[in-house]
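Appendix B.2, paired examples.
Example (i):
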Amino acid sequence: MTTSATITLPEDDGPRVVLWRSEAAVPPPKRVTIADDRLTADAAYRLACEGTALLYRGDFQNARQLLQAMTRRVERNPRKAATSLKEAFNFHRQAQSQRARVLGMVLIPLEGDYTIPLRRAPEVREACAETYGAVTGEASVVSLRELLGLIGAHEWRKKGVEIPVLADRIHPHYGVFSPVRGEYVDLVARTPLPTLEKAFDIGTGTGVLAAVLAKRGVKKIVATDSDPRALACATENLKRMGYDAQVKVVQADLFPEGRAPLVICNPPWVPARPASPIEYAVFDPDSRMLLGFLNGLAAHLSPGGEGWLILSDFAEHLGLRTRESLLAAIDQAGLKLVGREDIKPRHPKSTDANDPLHAARAKEVTSLWRLQAR
């Protein structure tokens, strides 16, 4: 996902062109100035708001403190008053975009071996290699905000996410949606299985739902994804848990070849445009994956088989999708509803009254829709 653009740095001996790294596909800043430990947070914030990036050449820990101080200044900006949840969502997305743009202006240099040539810099070579690939020897520049995200993702990958129904941990890779919201996993773990013979897991991500099916005794599972990182992540997780004999991970845009008596899919829940490639795990523009799954399901179900659609109604509360449009899409795909399992979310934002979208989150229900071909 990293862009292959370059950025021009102001050096004492003349401009220097190096590789620009951005997993969010953000274009390189056009204006760059050198910053060090003498720069105040107010001055840094003002320059960032004006579109000038700050290439840090001082102490790394001071750069982190500067970013934290700039974050506090961003958060002081008052929220726009919204007249509806849909408008609140749009304002929230605008604020997130502005926040990312401003805070992304603090830049950190990387040597060709992924070391950081700053005082008190952490060891990041392994984290960078996991995200950017093998060392090429090219010097580069990355935003401090992205670099801290890489470090955090590397720690999550090592530590893993505890999945109680598996009695094991899933280790998410950078850019692959982490199963921190466990309610959808619980739905797949508790809903009666129509078969133990075969299943398809569409958009497997970390492989967590394929692992749940395997643990429940499904003999043969084909797990698909179109993202190379997700494929590598799922393959690694399933092999480590000992399910690689039951689960075959394949690259596909939605469905693999053939039919199965059980086909499951947990598409992104919000039909909105992602602001970056990484957000495709959360946002489904024009409901592409949702409609693709529904419209292709009947052709990939064995006679009498079930399709399991795992979907939150969060988008409905935001006014981004209606229940009527979902039911119409199911009907138009030649499908019928034979059952539904519901569960309330348990994540911290569902009870955070200060969250700008709290009114929608408080009403949210995640459902497993059991569908059959008509």
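Example (ii):
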Amino acid sequence: MSDQVMQSAMYRRFRRGYLFLRYIVFAGSIICLGSQRKHLLKWIRSVTPGYLLRAPSPWLTFDAISYLEDQPLAGKKIFEYGSGGSTLYWLSRNAECVSIEHDRRWYETLRPLLTRGTVDCRLVMPRPLPGDALLSEPDDPASCLSSDERYHGYSFEEYVSQIDEFPPEHFDLVLIDGRARASCIRRAVSKVRPGGMLVVDNSERPDYFRRTGEDLKGFQKHSFPGASPSTFIWTRTDVFVKDV
């Protein structure tokens, strides 16, 4: 056996051991945290490959998913930034969905699965920015920038503005789980109908709300911290319900 083959085999064993340790540690933390214990079996199933597309399930915290399960979604109009398990979930609930995705490879993986229901799935990729635009910050809702280093120097203006073609108070639910989230929040608030929901995932990140607090003043916030499918981290999903 060559040194290269041996090193590759050792790396694979190390990686399997590392992933198993992460699995055990996080499962133990779910058990120890009483409020999340009820989600343990769902979480165990979710870490298998392709779960979010097979289930299907939104990539939100389990408590936020439970909240959505209690909402009547049949026939509702939904707009989402970020496609995937959530797209299939809305269709399984007989809702209409407009879904915006920035990643071509993921879009091409998902597209053949959208064989039922009413869905408008759009691939809208970021565009390179002129140099002077790099002075803006991702937490500025006017910037349409992503904080992800992979998209440094790219604008998500076209991606964010997809919702502009719809009239005010058109959607029953808007999910923000994609790129340039502060910008998406600002564009989306006027498109949510009274009594409708604006759902923001990974909402423990303060940069999403540092400059959008005023935009959300007409909403009541429901926070759902905890575990989420297919991940080994604690996160939070906020559901903002628009005042009637």
